[in-house]
From TrEMBL:
GO cellular component, one term: excinuclease repair complex
Identification of the protein by name: Excinuclease cho
InterPro entries: GIY-YIG_endonuc, GIY-YIG_endonuc_sf, GIY-YIG_UvrC_Cho, UvrABC_protein_C
GO biological process, one term: nucleotide-excision repair
Keyword DNA repair in record: yes
Domain GIY-YIG: from-to ranges: 36-110
Gene3D superfamilies per the UniProt record, alphabetical: GIY-YIG endonuclease (3.40.1440.10)
Keywords: DNA damage, DNA excision, DNA repair, Endonuclease, Excision nuclease, Hydrolase, Nuclease, SOS response
Record GO terms (molecular function): endonuclease activity; hydrolase activity
Top-level division of the source organism's lineage: Bacteria
Amino acid sequence: MGTHVNSVGLLVRADPALLFSYPDHIPRDCIDVLPQHPGIYIFRDEAATPIYIGKSVNIRHRVMSHLRTPDEAQMLARTRRIDFERTGGELGALLREAMLIREHQPVFNVKLRRQREICSIAIREHRPDIVFAKEVDFGRTDGLFGLFGTRKAAQETLKNLVQASKLCPVMTGLEKGSPGRPCFARQIARCHGACTGEESAADHAGRLQAALGHMLVRRWPYDGPVAIVEESDGLRQRQLVENWCYLGTGKLKKKRPAARFDLVVYQILARRLLAGELKVETL
């Protein structure tokens, strides 16, 4: 933020709005045609490269808010044109935005630009096991709990659950131990004794699963791909999805890569799809 000297000689911070000027280098023709409907918009630089991709239920309103935001002056200074694509509704805009950001990696899109390798917690042989999406198909596997960006994040969640539910840190792999020897938590009555055999491994695993229950990753609920139908002001679209993976709009391609679990698509769709709030056509 800039500074200036006021009328009494004090150095004060300047209001960014006072230093901001409307980006008149962006052609008016691409702004005038922006619709007040759902869809995505693309800010492009002088090489027509996307530098920012956004979505809104009202494209025109959202783009105009960018043009009036002093904090986005750097992005606006590099913008030479703004394009848009209408969608049949909000979900279509969300899915299309995520797909295009992943494809183009715009410099001013930070949060959605890269999807890290995610992991989850499975219970195998009565013990938690951290599994990764590159090894397990999350959309077609039952009994997965939580979606984490790193192994450390999954372990930290386990640690908190162990403490809150008086689970055994040895049985959960958080602490090394010897057969029959009580863990530290057992010595201070913070463990039910799975480490010493006082609690069976099966009972301990049941309590662990109950503690993880609120983080259950929901399996893809269909045998194959579906179309989610949306309509807005005369535009009807079918958003194609399979295994929590977005396949695009229109008709399903006969030859297509395997649909792998996509964290962003899962976060966008899971709650509403499983609650029956969306219009779905099986394919």
